[in-house]
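Marked as duplicate of an earlier ticket. Keeping the data here for the record.
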Amino acid sequence: MSPVRFAIPKGSLEEATFKLLERSWTKVNRKDRTYRVFLDDPSIIVKMLRPQEIPTMVSEGLYDVGITGKDWVGETKADVEPILDLEYGRIRLVIAFPDKYKYKNLDSMIADYAKKKKILRISSEYLTTASRFIKECKSYKKYFGSKDPLIVTPWVRLGNNKNVQIHLSFGATEAKPPEDVDAIMDVTETGTTLKQNKLKIVDEVLTSTAHLIANKQSLKDPNKREKIFDIVTLMRGAVRGKKYLHIYLNVEEKNLKKLLSQMPSLKKPTISPLSEDGWFGVNTVIRKDEFHKLIPKMRKIAQGLVVHEPRQILELEEIKRDEEN
């Protein structure tokens, strides 16, 4: 069986990705100053790449699976299969321009610049996404129809509308207005950096999280598909594990029924008699957000509470159904 090639992101998603890998596999090793990562499964070959590159690499079949932001899947138009939301790396892609401008949003800005026959310049790393968003604005359709905004990079110019231009940014996008461009499309988590640069957010283009994606042909290969779903099983279990607590406590027989009636559970609790007559051990998994509600109830009728955060919660029967479908 040929190994499964797995691309993971370097950069802003790197730290969270390694934490997830460490919850999913028992050994994760990375040699200093290299881009190779080793798991305790020799049939998975792991390499670090920039998240912007991963969708295309997976689409082209150079890698079977990869982790990247869903924003980059859309930006690159990669023909891949998103198979698992990893629920980290949450960002917003927004439109912002100087807070001294009176426009309500990009649409009103486009209209005013078109009326005054001024060239509108926008800076972004997301050229495809920016072009698509701009073309959907009502004012753009009114004044420019179906023309494509001019995309400007050091290597190529694409599009036929010189009056609305998208300039490729290589970083520090928030520093470009107002001298170099009129507006930006950029990633933000809290908006603090934009405010510090006297910019205001006027449109939200999309929100994104890290996703596990797969090559569509690899999913059709019986052997690779099996290993890919092993990866999905482990990583989904790690994602779910962060949302739950594994608890164990002791309770007298007279309070057992009352405890069980008040205790939420992922499945049914495991109940075991203790060596002391009239006492039972209760073992179960609950959601983290329910724990604080349960404490006052348990404190009155139970003893010896032990709490663990599980590394993984593996819904094996659920994965089996996915494979069958």
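See parent ticket for discussion. The longest strand covers residues 199-208.
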